[in-house]
Specification:
By secondary structure, the protein is mainly α. It has one domain. 44% of the residues lie in helices and 5% in strands. The chain has helices spanning 15-22, 40-53, 78-88, 92-112, and strands at residues 12-14, 64-66. The protein has a two-stranded antiparallel sheet with strand order 1-2. The longest helix is centred in the last third of the chain and has 21 residues, at 92-112. The N and C termini lie far apart (35 Å).
Length: 122
């Protein structure tokens, strides 16, 4: 399957999910908080991987925020998503965004239970 058979698209998440991911990025002034990521792109990758591994997709609601396209390259994920995006007639970015949104939902549930983010990988 060639790249021309499906659109690349762009990645983005809802403003709510973006705020959640920003709250997970390390901040020297908040070193006692659970902030395991060095950047928003790292947090987004984690949310995508979490959503993908748990098969949880969610549509973005409301306004959305674009994730840095130079730092998150959608074509890096074409092999694991090509059947799905072809079947669903969806762009790579759209599928990735839905998995990331699902991952954010899982992260939010974890945080609301008072658990650490990294507990999700154990």
């Amino acid at each position: 399957m060639s790249e021309q058979e499906f659109a690349k698209g762009s990645v983005g998440i809802s403003e709510t999910s973006h705020a959640l991911l920003v709250s997970l990025v390390h901040d020297d002034e908040k070193s006692s908080e659970d902030r395991p990521f060095e950047s928003i792109v790292e947090a987004f990758r984690f949310a995508f991987a979490l959503g993908f591994s748990m098969g949880r997709k969610q549509k973005r609601e409301g306004k959305h925020v674009t994730v840095a396209p130079r730092q998150f390259i959608v074509t890096d994920y074409r092999e694991i998503l090509k059947k799905e995006v072809t079947k669903n007639k969806q762009s790579l970015g759209g599928a990735i965004s839905e998995y990331a949104e699902g991952g954010c939902s899982i992260i939010s549930e974890t945080v609301s239970k008072g658990k650490n983010i990294l507990d999700l990988i154990s």
